[in-house]
Design brief:
By secondary structure, this protein is α+β, with helices and mostly antiparallel strands. It is about 25% helix and about 30% strand. Strands 1, 3, 5, 6, 9, 10, 16 and 17 form an eight-stranded mixed β-sheet that branches. Strands 11, 12, 13, 14 and 15 form a five-stranded antiparallel β-sheet that branches. Strand 12 and strand 13 form a beta hairpin. The longest helix has 25 residues. The chain folds into two domains: about 160 residues; about 180 residues, Immunoglobulin-like (Sandwich). It starts with 5 loop residues before the first helix and ends with a helix.
Length: about 350
C-alpha cells in the first residue's frame, strides 16, 4: 500500500469495500440458467445419420452459452445404454466424447436387428487393423457389439464390421459390411474475455503497474470460491485526446476469466458446478463489482482518485475455443455443429471417398 499515492490508496479502499460487500451477497440473484432437460449428447456420444428406426439420439444444436449447458446431467450415465445401428447405404457417424465410454455400436442394420441370425460371425476392423477384446480400450461382445472405454483421439477413424450369417438353416451364407465413422470430440474451452479502461497516472508512473496488480488480486479473490481464475492478458497505457479537451492517460486492461474443470466443488449443487454456470456467476460478480464502484464514487464527497474506473467501458465477451487438433465444422458435422471434433476426420473422409 505504501507504493500508492493518497489518491490511488483511496481507490484501493473503495475496491476492497466493494469486494467485502459482494462477498456477503455472492450467491444471491445469480441463477441465470433455468433448469431443463434440453437435448442430449451421448456420454457423451451422439449418433448422427442413424438408420430409420434406431434410437432417437440427436446432438444438441447450441445457440448461446446459456443453451449450451441445458442438457440433462444424466446424459453420461445413460451413454452406456445407448445402442446405434448401422446402414449398408452409408457410413453412420458416431461422436464420442474424449476420455468417455462410447455407446453400444451394433454390427447389424435396423432390419436385421429384429431378425434371428443363424451362425452369425462378426469381425470388426478399424484404423489399426482387426479389433479384439484383448485391447483394454476396446470391447467386442459375442453378439458383435463394439464398445470403447476412455475413448482417445487416435481411435478416431473408419470402422467396418463384416457380418456373415444365415436367416434360414441350410441356405447359403449372406455377407454384409457395415461402416461407421467414429469421431472423438471435446467440449470447447470456455472463458470470458474482460476489457476495461481506467483513468491513469502518467503512463511512465509505476503507480499504474502497482494498481494493475492490486486490481488483478481483487478480481481473483472475488471469483475464487467459484473455482474460477482471473488472469491479466495485457495492460496498456495510452494518451487519449478528449472531446473538446486535452490529453489524459488511460489504462486499457484485458483479463481472462476461466473456471477450473472440477466436479467436486461443494459450493454449488449438481448442474451449478458446470464450468459455464460458474462462469456466469463470475461474470455477474465482476459486473456488480464495477457497478458498485461507480455508485460509491458518485456518493463520495472526496475528490476523484488519480486512477479510477471509466464508467461504461467494461465489456465481457464469451469465448469458446477448441483445443489444438480439434475444430468446429457445422457443414461436415451438422448433427454436432458446435462440437470440437478431432480434425483427423478430414483424413478419414478422404480415405472413405477413395474407397468408394
Amino acid at each position: 500500500c505504501t507504493e500508492f499515492t493518497s489518491a490511488t490508496s483511496s481507490l484501493l479502499f473503495i475496491c476492497l469495500f466493494v469486494y467485502v460487500f459482494l462477498k456477503g451477497q455472492r450467491w444471491s440473484g445469480i441463477n441465470r440458467v433455468p433448469p431443463g432437460s434440453g437435448t442430449f449428447l451421448a456420454g457423451a456420444a451422439a449418433a448422427a445419420d442413424v438408420s430409420p428406426g434406431s434410437e432417437d439420439v440427436k446432438a444438441p444444436r447450441f445457440r448461446s452459452p446459456e443453451l449450451r449447458v441445458q442438457y440433462s446431467r444424466s446424459a453420461e450415465s445413460r451413454s452406456n445404454s445407448l445402442k446405434i445401428v448401422g446402414s449398408i447405404l452409408f457410413p453412420v457417424k458416431v461422436y464420442v466424447k474424449l476420455d468417455h465410454s462410447s455407446p453400444h455400436i451394433l454390427c447389424v442394420t435396423n432390419h436385421l436387428r429384429n431378425s434371428e441370425l443363424i451362425d452369425p460371425v462378426f469381425r470388426w476392423s478399424g484404423p489399426g487393423g482387426y479389433l479384439s477384446s484383448e485391447n483394454s480400450s476396446v470391447q467386442v461382445s459375442p453378439t458383435g457389439t463394439l464398445i470403447f472405454g476412455h475413448f482417445r483421439s487416435d481411435l478416431s477413424g473408419l470402422y467396418t464390421c463384416s457380418l456373415v450369417y444365415k436367416l434360414i438353416a441350410g441356405q447359403p451364407d449372406k455377407r454384409l459390411k457395415i461402416k461407421y465413422l467414429i469421431y472423438a470430440y471435446s467440449d470447447p474451452q470456455y472463458y470470458y474475455e474482460l476489457t476495461v479502461q481506467y483513468h491513469a497516472a502518467p503512463c511512465s508512473s509505476f503507480h499504474n503497474t502497482s494498481f494493475g496488480k492490486a486490481l488483478l488480486q481483487i478480481l481473483s479473490k472475488l471469483v475464487a470460491d467459484l473455482s474460477c481464475e482471473v488472469s491479466l492478458i495485457k495492460a496498456e497505457c495510452h494518451h487519449v485526446k478528449m472531446q473538446r479537451g486535452g490529453l489524459q492517460s488511460e489504462i486499457f486492461f484485458t483479463f481472462s476469466v476461466t473456471c477450473l474443470d472440477t466436479e467436486n466443488n461443494k459450493l454449488c449443487p449438481q448442474s451449478g458446478c458446470d464450468v459455464p454456470h460458474r462462469l456466469y456467476k463470475a461474470r455477474d460478480l465482476i459486473e456488480r463489482f464495477f457497478k458498485k464502484e461507480v455508485e460509491i464514487r458518485k456518493k463520495s464527497s472526496e475528490p476523484l482518485p488519480e486512477i479510477y474506473y471509466i464508467e461504461g467501458t467494461l465489456q465481457m465477451v464469451w469465448v469458446d475455443r477448441c483445443y489444438p487438433g480439434y475444430g468446429v465444422n457445422a457443414v461436415r458435422h451438422p448433427d454436432c455443429p458446435e462440437c470440437c471434433v478431432n480434425s483427423s476426420g478430414k483424413k478419414m473422409l478422404g480415405k472413405l471417398v477413395t474407397a468408394y
